[in-house]
Structures are given as structure tokens and as C-alpha cells.
Amino acid sequence: MPQALLAAGPSPLDPQWLISTFGLIGILAIVFAESGLLIGFFLPGDSLLFTTGLLVSAGQYLHQPLWLLCLLVAMAAVAGDQVGYLFGKRVGPSLFRRPNSRLFKQENVNRANDFFARYGARSIVLARFVPIVRTFTPIIAGVSRMRYRTFLIFNLVGGTLWGVGVTVLGYFLGQIAFVKANIEYILIAIVLVSVLPIGIQLLRSRRARRTAGAVGDPVETAHAPRR
After folding, report:
1. Residue 9 pLDDT > 70, yes or no?
2. Could you read off the pLDDT of 46-75 as tens digits, one per residue?
3. CA–CA distances in Å: residue 14 to residues 8, 10, 33, 48, 59
4. Cβ-contact 5, 17 below 8 angstroms
5. 135, 45 in Cβ contact below 8 A?
6. CA distances (Å), origin 85, targets 26, 82, 135
């Protein structure tokens, strides 16, 4: 296994470095945090799971059987969404009045709210595959007082499809000769994909601030979703 990315210096969004440094516990903690904690939206969930599958296939860093990894990842994903739902239910519509900070942007809440309004209960599954929206959707479900039994069913389905599906995809692609021969470049591409949503988010926030400053009006705040 090449060490090009590690030699270049650790990055907090580099899945290979995260896995080699924190192992299975780190993977589960990141999946849990990104699934339902407000501060977890920037974490590289998709690329982390894909890299996990690649490294298991290559026998590097992770030596647990694939089935056990998939089971634990799915459990962490489901548990994270559960916490997000309960948090949203407790906080309620006041979430939409929370001021912006470095780790919290109303824009992210708005995106998740629109996503939830468009797809309803299905959004709990679909949001798993959409970075940033994945973190805020269970919280919006809690704010909207979505029926708990319905949320739990869709959460179990979504957490399993995402946690198992992305990990297994990385595992089987890691056995392809082309992937094995070019794994350095693939890992570099994974790092770039990991930081891309954050870069886009920063650009959008900066553009919104400039527009608001030019017009002289504050950025419009969100309204609570309809129940």
C-alpha cells in the first residue's frame, strides 16, 4: 500500500490518515457524528466508508472481517440519526432562529428542510447519500415531529443501505486490478472529493455575505417547517 498521502502530512479530512490513526473506533465515531450531530456536517462520511472498503480489501490498517465492519458502521449510522432526531425534537423550531457561527449555518438547515419537505419520510433514506444534508435531515425530522416509528423504520433502512453499501462497494472495487494498480491516485481523488463539499459551502457562504453587504439587507432567515 503506497504511503504518498501520509508522507505529505496528515489532513483532518484525509480518510486514509483517519483510518490509519484512529482505526475502527475513529470510523464509527465519525459515522455517528456525521449522521446526526450539528458539528459533524464537514466530516468525510462517504469517502471514509469507501476507503474503509478499499483498505479492508488490501488488508491494510483494518483486520476485522468485512461483515463485522459493515454491521458496526450501520449501527453507528442509525444511532447517529436517532440522536439527531431526538435533538431536533427537543430543540424544535428554535433551531431556525439559531445564529450563524463557524460550525453552524442556517443555509444548511434550509437545504435539509427543503429536502425533507420535498421527499417526506423517504428523505431519511435519500439524505444518506447527500453530504451535509445527511447531517441535518434527521434533525429536521425531529423538529417537524415526524412520527417516531416511521422515522425509525426509514432510519434503519437508510443507515444499512448507506453504511453497508458504500463500504462493500469500496471493498469489491479494491479487488479490481486497475484499482489496485492506481490506488495512490484513487486515494488522492477521494481526499479531493472529501474536501469539495466544504469548499463549495465556504464559497456559497462568502458569496451570500458579499451579496448581503452589497444590497444592504441581512441574509433572509428560514422559517420553521410545517407540521
Report:
1. no
2. 889 998 998 898 888 888 999 999 999 999
3. 11, 7, 16, 8, 19
4. yes
5. no
6. 23, 5, 10
